[in-house]
Design a protein that fits this description.
This protein is α+β, with helices and mostly antiparallel strands. The protein contains four helices and nine strands. It has a single domain, classed as Carboxypeptidase-like, regulatory domain (Immunoglobulin-like).
């Protein structure tokens, strides 16, 4: 596979898995899947904080992969966001989910995402070294969701997975994250 096709396949796999990470599982009767944009309106303000980081994963062959050229998502904290993160990652602070696990979430009946929620997310593209930056953030708590995925051989499912880290910034600080699999 030439480099151009590899990049296209990786981008396609990343998009599919990023969308999977943004989907919900089938909800229990206690869950209210409604999203209220006013809950995250604070995150639309311009602030003086930043979140910078890297996302890397060691592949089975020993090669370190990163989020290079992939979109990292930043979700402002809300009841809806916390519930989604706990359902997707099994934790609301910090977690890693493999590509295979993310695919199973996407395939569950009723897996949908509120369009207004999707609009509340910010995105940053990782550079060639797997670094990302979110600038001008208002004080608050956010969830950083970073894919580190790639395609194996033609016909194989994507490999890698997704990182999630909760981070709070305030008072003009720059939070630094190093997202690596356990």
């Amino acid at each position: 596979m030439n480099r151009s096709n590899l990049l296209a396949a990786t981008a396609a796999a990343s998009l599919a898995l990023t969308l999977a990470a943004c989907e919900t599982t089938q909800m229990s009767s206690r869950y209210d899947p409604s999203f209220d944009p006013t809950d995250v309106a604070w995150s639309k303000q311009r602030g003086s904080n930043a979140i910078v980081g890297t996302a890397q994963l060691k592949a089975g062959n020993g090669i370190t992969r990163s989020c290079a050229s992939l979109s990292v998502r930043l979700a402002p904290d809300s009841d809806y966001t916390r519930d989604r993160v706990e359902r997707l990652y099994g934790d609301a602070d910090s977690a890693y989910v493999s590509a295979a696990e993310a695919k199973s979430v996407r395939e569950q009946p009723g897996a949908t995402v509120a369009p207004a929620y999707e609009k509340s997310l910010k995105a940053a593209t990782c550079d060639a070294k797997g670094r990302f930056t979110f600038k001008n953030l208002p004080d608050g708590t956010y969830y950083v969701m970073a894919p580190v995925v790639w395609r194996g051989k033609i016909g194989e499912v994507s490999e890698g997975g997704f990182f999630m880290q909760r981070v709070t910034v305030e008072g003009g600080e720059t939070a630094r994250l190093a997202m690596n699999a356990p």
